[in-house]
Amino acid sequence: MHTPDDGPLPTIRPFPGSDPVADGDAVVQGDHWRITVLCDGLFRVEWSDDGGFEDRASTFAVRRRLPVPEYTVVRRGDGVEVTTDRATLRYDGRPFSATGLVVETSGADANRWRWGQEPRDLGGTGRTLDDVDGRMPLESGVLARDGIVALDDTGSFLFEDDGWVGSRVPGRRDVQVFAYGRDYDAALRAFHAVSGPPTLLPRWALGNWWSRYHPYSDESYLALLDRFAEERLPFSVAVIDMDWHRVDSVPARFGNGWTGYSWEPSLFPDPPAFLAELHRRGMRTTLNLHPADGVRAFEDAYPAMAAATGIDPDTEQTVAFDPTDPDFLRAYFEHLHRPLEEQGVDFWWIDWQQGRTSGMPGVDPLWVLNHFHLLDSARDGGAGMTFSRYAGPGSQRYAVGFSGDAVVSWASLAFQPEFTATAANVGYPWWSHDIGGHTRGVRDDELATRWVQFGVFSPIMRLHSANNPFIRKEPWMFPAEPRSAMGDALRFRHRLVPYLHTMNHRAAAGTALVRPVYHLEPHRDEAYRVPNEYAFGSELLVAPIVEPRDPVTRRGRARAWLPPGTWTDVFTGTTHAGDRFVDLHRGLDTIPVLLRAGGILPLAASDESDATVNPAALEVLVAPGASGTFTLVEDREQRTPSGTGTGISTGTGTGTGTGTGTDGVCRTTLTWDRDGGVFRIAPAEGDLGSVPAWRRWRVTFLGSPAAGQEIDAASADRFSVDLDVATDTGAVLPLAGPPTIGVDARDAARQLLEGAQAGNAEKLTAWEVVDRDAPRADRMAELETVGLPESLRSALVELLGSVHPGER
User: Fold this and answer.
1) Which residues contact 678 (CB under 8 A, 6 or more apart)?
2) One-character DSSP codes across 184-197
3) Span 412-424, mean pLDDT?
4) What is the structure's pLDDT at 12?
5) HEC secondary structure over 512-529
6) Cβ atoms within 10 Å, residue 687
7) CB-based contacts of 806: which residues, under 8 Å, 6+ apart?
8) Is the pLDDT of residue 147 over 90?
9) Is 693 exposed, middle or buried (0-12, 13-18, 19+ CB in 10 A)?
10) Phi/psi at 439 (nearest 5 deg)?
11) Residue-wise pLDDT tens digits, 536-560
């Protein structure tokens, strides 16, 4: 085993971005305590029985040398009072107590926190949803309505100066206190300043992932992809679950086949050819890992692994899984993973069976795997890519999270939007769920459809099923209505990739793709009452439908609170006034996805389905009720590991979040000027070679055109103008006048009434009310007298209450 006295390990080195020792000017210290003012609202408070203090990086804190904020210090006996522009910390210099450690915020959000009080934060996320059928308790985040949160880092393990892992010294307490009031953006900036930014994902990770626990062969997998192509169902990531390696063919004397590193030759006789064919089809590949059982003698790599770890291969002694042994870890990458990467494997799905303890006190093997897998995948200069479980604060540095084996139920679906959104409260942006559910439950075609629709508007869209022939996600396995809705959803996900990749760059700078509504409106109580509604990037609000549809209206319902402004549904064109609650009703074909006034949503054209390339044709949706600007960010595809690195590229951080891991970034600013009636595509800036020199742009306004407007396509709720644009010069599109927002509710109301499973006489009376030439408020009030089922009346009220031309 390595110890600090052995000197640096030649292939294990600290990551250059790690800087865990704070500036001395930020430190106030006593005999047994130390306070570091990390940011203007973030204090590190330490207690030490032995008088020593910890300057090594932890799993949470990798950068403490930050610009020193202004602060004042007043010594009071053995204690101290430290004050910044945001907060005051009072400490008596003794072991932490409710009377001796107090933090108060100032200004409009003034509040007081005492050590040991019941946590009142807004929640973060959790390690796994395995076997969770409904809600589960959330681990802590760093945001709270009362504005002060303590993150106790005492239990995390550390990284040595040479980049290797180490244990903490007993008797030392390490607490970070976030005191930002409801300035949630500032709190998260401080979090990422200390803990590091999220990984910048490769573009292809944002398309659809196909995953199924099933013993595919190379022929059956490629035949499946052929069928997807026939159905025009795009995918960018091929997940091969555990049956890629030997399972049933493992000799009985070696135990079960959960752990494996050798291709099953009866299923994959030529792995490089299979992987090359996936790449030719525009797909990247991840293989499942369950490393807990070590490396056994039947594995192809066993002789090399045994020799690297000092075992005589003739003994067939298992090479034990020990990620805290540097010799094992070097061999683990060099002999088990890099040869498979040379064959064409792009990244690894690290499944979890190794528990929470290891051979080193306090060191969680999941953390070790996440850390070194990510850094090894980035050894050739990319940002790196992993797929694994959440391990706690700091996990945002390790790419994509696998949330575990979801139970097939409405209760599971109903919790996933909240679970995904609150992860932003601890800076964790990239959850991947088992979309559609993995195990147990009953078949419910509507549930499966709503889950797919949520998946499209979740961070990573990965369909998944258990090894049960009756749990399937192929859309053609469903009747016509859900099949059509699923297909439309999957195709739309790939159209979203230009927007998603722009938000990917934004996430790498610290703003998650999916965020609770209270991130937008932290001082509005209403924003805390819609846990399943969320912001989806800078432009959209999404309210997934997570309950069965009403038997009368045949529509699902989602309750939303809309922030001030107007919001237009990108699918229906319906526009709603904000600053109110509204029940949104949708058929099985869509869920509510609302574009803010002035919002600009870039999409790939409908025939651009390859998520590995920047499209040559785009459509831009514009909500023209206000002016707005959006900067489209694109880049060259990130390099994947070549397997030719000289050692484990290890350390305590993973990049800057500003484009690291790409050959270049190109930015195109899109602007809508409502007052002037002009849409502009600015000349692209940056790496112009990463995008086509000419592009076809379709600019689609969600509204009705002004008189005299020339259009290339139109429907009841939108119109489009097409442009051929040179990337380096841009274009200006003047309109004949500002579009009129909103649509007449009568057509939608008539369709609703036609399909409603309700009395025909009552429906006719309701239609006469809806169609009457009277103020909308009067018609909504009169509907109360018709005797309609409440669900039908509510759906009509949504339509009548929307924004539409005139008062009809």
Assistant:
1) 672, 732, 733, 734, 735
2) HHHHHHHHHHHH-P
3) 98
4) 55
5) CCEEEHHHCCCCCHHHHH
6) 17
7) none
8) yes
9) exposed
10) -145, 160
11) 999 999 999 999 999 999 999 999 9
Which of 678, 646, 683 lies closest to 667, judged by CA?
683
pLDDT, tens digit, 9 for 90 and up, residues 268-313: 999 999 999 999 999 999 999 999 999 999 999 999 999 999 999 9
Do 178 and 142 form a contact (C-beta atoms < 8 A)? yes
pTM for the model:
0.95
What's the pLDDT tens digit per position in 89-110?
A: 999 999 999 999 999 999 889 9
Q: SS3 for 598-650, per residue?
A: CCEEEEECCCCCCCCCCCCEEEEEECCCCCEEEEEEEECCCCCCCCCCCCCCC
Q: Give the pair of three-digit tokens for residue 360.
A: 């080193």
- Residue with the two structure tokens 């059982």: 293
DSSP category for residue 333: I
What interhelical angle do 790-800 and 760-770 show, nearest 10? 20
Please work out, in degrees rounded to the nearest 5, the angle formed at the alpha carbon of residue 393 by the alpha carbons of 103 and 13. 115
Provide the token pair at 648: 């484990």
Whether residue 2 is predicted with pLDDT greater than 80 in this model: the reply is no
Q: Which residue is it, tokens 């690195």?
A: 645
Beta carbons within 10 angstroms of residue 134's beta carbon: 12
Beta strands in 31-141 (DSSP E): 33-39, 42-48, 57-58, 72-76, 79-83, 87-91, 101-105, 112-114
Taken as a whole, the chain contains a residue count of 808
C-alpha span between 697 and 302 (Å, rounded): 55
> What band does 15 get if pLDDT is binned at 50, 70 and 90?
low
Retrieve residue 714's tokens: 């139109």
- Identify the burial level of 707 via C-beta atoms within 10 angstroms of its C-beta, where 0-12 means exposed, 13-18 middle and 19 or more buried: exposed
Strand partners, 29: 34
Rounded mean pLDDT of the chain?
93
Nearest to 84 by CA among 39, 146, 52: 39
- SS3 sequence, 114-127? ECCCCCCECCCCCC
Residues 347/387, Cβ–Cβ less than 8 Å: yes
End-to-end Cα separation, the chain, in angstroms: 78
Residue 434 vs residues 349, 385, 426, 593, 804: alpha-carbon distances, Å: 13, 19, 21, 22, 39
Specify the pLDDT at position 14.
Answer: 57
Residues 6+ apart with CB under 8 A from 32: 47, 48, 49, 51, 93
Give the pair of three-digit tokens for residue 430: 């990239």
Determine the 3-state secondary structure of 358 from DSSP: coil
Residue (of 25, 29, 14, 103) closest to 63 by Cα position: 14
The distance of Cα 51 from the centroid of its chain, to the nearest Å, equals 41
Helices 480-495 and 445-456 meet at what angle, rounded to 10? 10
**Cα four-point dihedral sign 204, 205, 207, 209:** positive
Give, for 745, the enclosing helix (H) or strand (E): helix 745-755
171 — phi, psi (to 5°)? 85, 10
541 with 535: CB under 8 angstroms? yes
CB 670 within 8 A of CB 631: yes
- Provide CB contacts within 8 A for 326, sequence distance 6+: 1, 2, 9, 12, 164
Residue, of 605 and 4, whose pLDDT is higher: 605
Rounded Cα distance between 387 and 202, Å, is 13
* Contact assessment for residue 456 and residue 593, using Cβ atoms and an 8 Å cutoff: no
Q: Under 8 Å CB-to-CB from 134, ≥6 apart: which residues?
A: 409, 411, 412, 414, 415
Q: How many CA atoms lie within 13 A of 741 on its CB side?
A: 23
Pair type for strands 158-159 and 33-39: unpaired
